[in-house]
Amino acid sequence: MATLCSASAPLLLRGAPTLAALLLGLAPLALASPAVAADSESAAFDKCSGRDRNNCVVDGDTFWFAGEKIRILDINTPEVSQPECPYEAQLGEAASERLLVLLNSGPFELQAKGRNRDQYGRLLRTVARDGESLGAMLVREGLAEDWKGRRSSWCGEGPALARAGTSGGSR
């Protein structure tokens, strides 16, 4: 069964011995067995369509997993549902496809940081595999930008287009 990290749940440091283990002289066991298993989440993801909202990708920074809608909190990707220009639509589709591939490439970890949910009720999580943020991968590939607390325009002049090596204007 899938588990979703909660921001309100106590966080134990991986690899750090628990107080009980130290008191009982079991620190070596605590070091050998992390309290939370890394990369323990997985599912077969598809693109969301129709009313089916189970283990599917909505867009490059939002997906459904185990009955919860999750917003990847460390990135912003172009919109696919209401893009402002053809370039945003094209890049948004590419980001969505890449997130689908990344989620289906093996187990991942959902990490809670800060707020638990956004104003739309979505869980806010960083998604990582082998300790690396999948969002950071999308940023490096030019399919996302680091989250700055608000959405940016992907059309006209702006940081997203500068990274993509364009001179601005609609594409």
Descriptive key words:
alpha+beta; 9 strands; globular; seven-stranded mixed sheet; OB fold (Dihydrolipoamide Acetyltransferase, E2P)
Overview of this protein structure:
Residues 5-37 and 158-171 have low confidence and may be disordered. This protein has 171 residues and is of the alpha+beta class. It is 25% helix and 18% strand. It is globular. It is built from 5 helices and 9 strands; from the N terminus they run H-H-E-E-E-E-E-H-E-E-E-H-E-H. Strands 1, 2, 3, 4, 6, 7 and 8 form a 7-stranded mixed beta sheet that branches. Strands 5-9 form a two-stranded antiparallel sheet. It has one domain: Beta Barrel (OB fold (Dihydrolipoamide Acetyltransferase, E2P)), CATH 2.40.50.90.
Give a short synopsis of this structure.
This protein has 171 residues and is of the alpha+beta class.
User: Roughly how many Å is the radius of gyration?
Assistant: 18 Å
Q: Could you name the CATH topology? A: OB fold (Dihydrolipoamide Acetyltransferase, E2P)
Q: In CATH's first tier, which class applies? A: Mainly Beta
pLDDT averaged over residues: 77
Structural class: alpha+beta
Query: Got a strand count?
Result: 9
